[in-house]
Amino acid sequence: MTDDERFSLLISVLGEVPGSTAAGTRDPRIPEEVTNMSAGYTPGVPRLGIPAIQSSDAGMGVTNPGYRPDDEGATAFPSSIALGSSFNPRLVREGGEAIGREARARGFNVQLAGGCNLARDPRNGRNFEYYSEDPYLSAVLAAEQVDGIQSQGVVSTLKHYTLNCNETNRHWLDAIIDPDAHRESDLLTFQIAIERSQPGAIMSGYNKIDGEYAGGNHHLLNEVLKGAWGYPGYVMSDWGATPQWQFALAGLDQESGVQADLMLWGKQPFADELRDAYVNGELPAERLSDMVRRILRSLFAVGVDRWGPAPEVDMAEHNRIALEGARQGIVLLKNDGVLPIPSDRPLAIAVIGGYAQQGVISGTGSGAVAPVGGFAGVIKIGGAGVMGKHRNLFLFPPSPLEELEKFLPQAHFDLDPGYTPAEAALTAKRSDMVIVFGIRVEGEGFDSVLEGGVAESMTEGVHRSGPGLGEPTVADLSLPWGQDAVIDAVASANANTIVVLETGNPVSMPWRDKVKAIVQAWYPGQAGGQAIAEVLSGAVNPSGRLPITFPESLEQTPRPELPGLGTPWGTAVTIEYNEGAEVGYRWFAETGARPMYAFGHGLGYTTFEYSDLAVTGGDTVTATFTVSNTGDRPGADVPQLYLTEAAGERRQRLLGFERVELQPGTSHRVTLVAEPRLLARFDGTAGKWRITEGTYKVAVGKSADSLDLTAETTLTNALFGS
Ligand code: GLC
Known about the structure:
With 722 residues, the protein is an alpha/beta fold. Helix content is 24%, strand content 22%. Strands 1-2-3-4-6-9 form a 6-stranded mixed β-sheet. A 6-stranded mixed β-sheet has the order 10-20-19-16-11-15, covered by helices on one side. A 4-stranded mixed β-sheet has the order 8-7-5-21, with no helix packed on it. Helix 14 packs parallel to helix 17 (528-537). The radius of gyration is 25 Å and the shape is globular. Alpha-D-glucopyranose binds at residues 39, 57-58, 112, 159, 238-239, 366. Residues 39, 57-58, 112, 159, 238-239, 366 line the site of alpha-D-glucopyranose.
């Protein structure tokens, strides 16, 4: 290859949104004949059979933030946190295969999917793009998505390497963590997912880790990813995450979206400075060859160079996958007998708030998908920084209301916008039952800065704390726009109140004891309206389990006050992740606090029991037990296997899980073999995983704090892996 050809591979150019800049300012590096614009374009080398590299976002489908006016829309799959709730690897793989087909049909050979950062902070605006707070669940599911996409001949990323767990001033955020704890949490997620799916590329994140930017972090890129783990693919930066060419020496192979760097850092380092560095000997020849080889190797390993005609895209099948994902992602948190709603009675049902008459909402940012047929509505929200223009209330049709009318044909529905507590209460009062929606738009570039507008005592409903009322403004997990007050007023007016949440994170629920049922639908994608109606009417038996802990309050979390929250765009922020590897349920196990709803929690319309646990040890834990459907209707359960004590030390780790579908009265024997690194500590001095000989206690349960069966076994000393 010529040097021109080699250096041309080391950058990608952001597609221009038609009309977003003065006419004719299309980046000259993108040939006129390229019409399928998107996140990144890298010229190929036709004489050598190397195709142009065209990348698109992301993990919920093929996005089109205006790049392709003639694109009729893509399948809008459920958010990753909803898929995380399914605990269903096969389902996630099916979604990955479908996304891969839709990317390929548009000529994209790299899909920027595989978001697998841990949900460390329930305020993180991008948790909806990630699977869970647990490394193993996240790794297993992310690997399935990547494998599914790559099975279609499209390279997938895993992202954002690493510890991109908050959005607050992310370009200037320094994430501090103990290196060994990092290996046992966020890095373990990437390590297991890489082993299981061989992603062609890893995308480094915006933030710093322990003082070094992710894209220029020699330790994490050269020593861990490429060194200890032997990762053979390439590392691309995030868009606007390459402030200097020297990142090439630290392990970065490709600068993505170079115009974003020009905007943020005033230069395009790999485009404008890297070649000079090579000419004057600062960039070694073997490093240049390595960068190019890694990129080409991944294209060839996934088969991008061997594309035949694009496979047919069966959108009906993709719609089915999206619907199944929405169904299995819905988590029934509370049910005091009010669900399922009987479909054979002429009930007067109030449907209140959440734009339920228009559709279901989505997360925002680079991962937001424009559905086939377009949105039912888009309401601009805006905000600071580069992602403000992407922060919209997107509504996917069909609406929950029209779907409820289909599944509850005998009922009479009374719609109320939930605009004020008083108005909503009047609607509730005259109804037999109320379904009230609580929504919160969350997305890239923003952590929740919600203000505690919750009345000190909702029952009185007299005095409200919060801004402008003489009380300090407290950032918390409350619903915005006064929805908590609406839900409280409605629950006070009608005892048969059901709350349906469409959020990207846990929420606080001051009205929890006053409502009969609570359903978390997350951002369920294009089929969310139908799936919500199916669950509420009992057409579908909910089987989702929480992939993230719902705390009673932020006081229970490692960082009640999020450093830098609300500071102006551009402010340097340091977040010390002192919980280390004890993320989510692990933190609660350490502190002994009881959350509002635990990791793994979820109810259904039948009951399950576990029995006959048998455990063996040695070099890992193998557990076998029976799951029985003891109820009167078919359903799915997700029994979970946890480590609870390791050689005398209290430590909770999810060791395994299996989603089991059972007819009533039937049973299934489950065997789970633990990933040994979940039983070990990382010994940074030795650079290896260490299992200390001793007694290991395990438990099988329905959630992290509902453990039904316990057992113990002995493990032998081991020093292994890297
Ligand atoms: C965004 C995101 C990343 C995405 C990329 C391209 O800012 O951080 O997840 O893939 O830029 O849109």
